[in-house]
Write a structure and sequence with these properties.
The structure is a homodimer of 400-residue chains. By secondary structure, chain A is an alpha/beta fold. Chain A contains 12 helices and 20 strands. In chain A, the strands form 4 sheets. The first copy, chain A, has a 7-stranded mixed beta sheet with strand order 6-4-3-2-1-7-8. In chain A, strands 9, 10, 11, 12 and 20 form a 5-stranded mixed beta sheet that branches. A 5-stranded antiparallel beta sheet of chain A has the order 14-13-15-18-19, with helices on both faces. The radius of gyration of chain A is 24 Å and the shape is globular.
Chain lengths: 400, 400
Amino acid sequence: MPRNAVLLNKDRLHAWMAELQLDAVVATTPENVTYMSGFWALPQWIRRGPQAYVVWPAPGKGDAEIVTSTATLDLVADQQVWVERVRRYGAFHADGYPDDAKDPVSQRLLQLQETPNHDDALSALVAALTDAGFTRIGIDEVGLMPGQFDMLKERLPDTSLVPAAGLLRNVRAVKTPEEIARLARVAEIAERSIKAALVVAREGASEVELARAFHAQTVQDDAFPVLGCIGFGERSALMNVQPSSRKLEKGDVIRFDVGGRYRHYRADIARIATFGEPTKEVRRYHRALLAGVERACELIRPGVRVADVFEAAIETVRREGIGHYRRNHVGHGIGIDGYDAPSLTATSDEVLEAGMVLCVETPYYELGRWGLQVEDMVVVRPDGTERLMATSGDLMVVAS
Amino acid sequence: MPRNAVLLNKDRLHAWMAELQLDAVVATTPENVTYMSGFWALPQWIRRGPQAYVVWPAPGKGDAEIVTSTATLDLVADQQVWVERVRRYGAFHADGYPDDAKDPVSQRLLQLQETPNHDDALSALVAALTDAGFTRIGIDEVGLMPGQFDMLKERLPDTSLVPAAGLLRNVRAVKTPEEIARLARVAEIAERSIKAALVVAREGASEVELARAFHAQTVQDDAFPVLGCIGFGERSALMNVQPSSRKLEKGDVIRFDVGGRYRHYRADIARIATFGEPTKEVRRYHRALLAGVERACELIRPGVRVADVFEAAIETVRREGIGHYRRNHVGHGIGIDGYDAPSLTATSDEVLEAGMVLCVETPYYELGRWGLQVEDMVVVRPDGTERLMATSGDLMVVAS
């Protein structure tokens, strides 16, 4: 596979592993398994319980390895996976006809089905770790089922196991080119989907009707719907508003806080439209919120403290029109998870690095009236901010 | 809210709580929180980490209570939630204009925001459990983050805490009328989506093109895409086949193993089409697989052992044309989770009960050739099987 299709930031991972003196790191959550190997294990993504892992050794300590159920080997064979070793567990019946197989995917799957089998996920993982002879291992503790971390400790008594979910979240914070390409595409899909939703915005159209048009565009563009907060009027102030039968009325604010998943990568953007002319207050407040996002984006560059970005955004919104503006954060990282590091808060000591992808946002809610929000996706580049957005955050007025 | 809209099988839960002498049960996974309260906490459903709970006391031990973050109270206010007490944690800024609020949802949210606040999820949960004075509590251990179960034990030293994920899975196995109504609708949506996909099946159409048409119908019917395995020809034998650019050719088998999520409830059905006339072997094998599902459905009724259903299905497929047929299971429960209890295996000692909803399936894969599968959703009724399907499992021949 093309080297540039790798999602994992290997250099960053290896630097952290050296710092923490880890022989290996084991991914266990769906996000981290896909991130570290390219392998998307369907059962793990749609339910809690099914287990798949990636064992990633430090440089010079051997080859990386996928541990997964026999029933998912077809996905290993069919996907752009850059980890070649695979260890399987569990039984799954599928008859093989190697002489008929023309597709290399079938051929690879037939080979994988001939590899040795383990009884269960943990036994396969223990075998992988034991065979490699690691003595100090970081385990992404979040994807394990209750009790499994302790079981691993019992079965690996001479090995030091340390939690590594935080480490992997940190590694994921700085994106590779392939990740940024996917994030740019999913941001674009979200913008196209907002546009499609606004096409059906007319007197009497419901929130659900806009949501249908929104998601229809998302699936047309080969993304999966995830976040679809679309609210009219008073409902636009509901922070997680789920589309209802509420019908559009003249003067309504329409708030979108939305984004799907494209090749596993998430979008999270926000835009405001009004149905007919907005009030002066809505226009002024929206302009203040937009100014806050723009100010944050001016400041963003490697070496800047996220707390300073937070302060500048809040201060700008206050100065530009909402004197009482308050927020806990003005954004967050985004990637294969919808909330990657860093979080743009007042109390964070994190510092921006080139390659981070951020959602920068200044939401504002007046319960009983309306909610306004601007949220853009941007990349931290050596010389400043690269917006991933094709549209501005300007207030859009739909003719009523 | 209408009493019949409750998802939770209260009688079954209370019977199990009495059996296990539990004062209360605490739901922690997204599925169990929604199931026990009607409350769908968005952040918990789309990521791992955000916490929401439902505390459900035994009869006579007080009122049920939702524990959730301040940032999600709008969803409590807006949804058909049958648990009235709410305990919140964490800060979230939203200004209130009670005099302007016309929507009861805004009014309810304004009230909820005035309730006392706790520092974090676990503190709120500990307060709820302490205030109620429970001495023996079942905790759905799967939704907690690593270490939280032990932290709860430390903070509730005089309380006995026992894992309860298995108990809740068992409770969920027997569906309420509202659950069955949702499952019937989502099954219908999956069938409609297959039909929509087959409309675009023509020479040179890709798997991805069929998937787009499939998901477009799903979102048009207000469901969310989840499972979308659609494969042509040799790729139909890949058990989890994800749509690719592979183009449809004359003679191809088209396998669908699909289903979305409608009002939180899952579909999982399978159908086979061929593009042009199938070979005799495909027709005979498909007929054998269909006969297996039909035989299982004839047997299904309360009191029957699932192992007997398994044996009958396998035996029928073998007798009707695939002498070497092997499977680990011939189906599973379905509900708010895609794999509810029971699992239809040879080794299970589970017995069918009225109100269970099952996916009955006989997949068969010839790697290098094609995969065939029939999967129906059915309800166990006192007098036998009620199919939730509008279509038969017959092989569909698309004119090539």
